[in-house]
Every structure is written in structure tokens, then in C-alpha cells.
Amino acid sequence: MKKKQKNDIVSIFQNFQMEVLNRKPTHNQMFDEIRMMRFKVRPVTGDISALDFDNTTFIETLWSLGKLDEFFHSTVDDLDKAEKQVFFRLFDDLYQDYHERLNDINIRADKFSQDFAFEVEIYREKGNNGN
Q: How many contiguous H segments (helices) and E segments (strands) does the chain have?
């Protein structure tokens, strides 16, 4: 029975990757969806006006992280305890992969030197549901 549960969770992840992450919309559609996902960028150090947030790889990675977050919240509550353990492990691996990709993207505008240092915090603003 445990093998069946694990395979079901793996299938859920595979379907998500094939149906969502591997079928990305156009750059403009991803950009619009990111706006609806309510991501915010907060400078920690440096001048973020010098950054190119329209970078294609940045947009794709941020969009994928947003979709991964939506997938997590739409799926996790329907799982039992054993399924959640497998789900969390698979989710964490995929999340870490996208997080590392985000950290490796060069969003520095071309006019700035490689010595230009910055740090930003990207977070998702939670919706207000009246509580």
C-alpha cells in the first residue's frame, strides 16, 4: 500500500510538471500572471533601480515558483500523513531547484559593472480574506 501512495504522489508531481511547468505561456502572459500572484521585491542592499526585472529567465523562474506555491496549497490539504511526508520531500527538492535558479540569475542591467552588489527579498503578499 505504501508503494502505491508514493507512486500516486510522484504521479501528481509529474502531471504538475508536464501540464504546468513544461507548458509555460508567453513571456508577457507570465509577467501578467506574476502581477496577479502579488509578488513583491524589497531591496535589502544596493539600488534595485539598476536591475532588469524583465529578464526572461527571472520571469520564468518566478512564475514557476508562483505556480509551485499554488500547486502546494491546492494539493497538500487533501493528503494523509504518509502522503504528506512524500509530498513535502518532493516539493522541497523542486522548490530548492527553483530557488537556486533564482539566486543564479543575473538581473543586473548591462550598464552596471560586475562589482555592483545588491540583495533583494522576494515575497508573496498574502490576500486579505477579511480575518
A: 4, 2
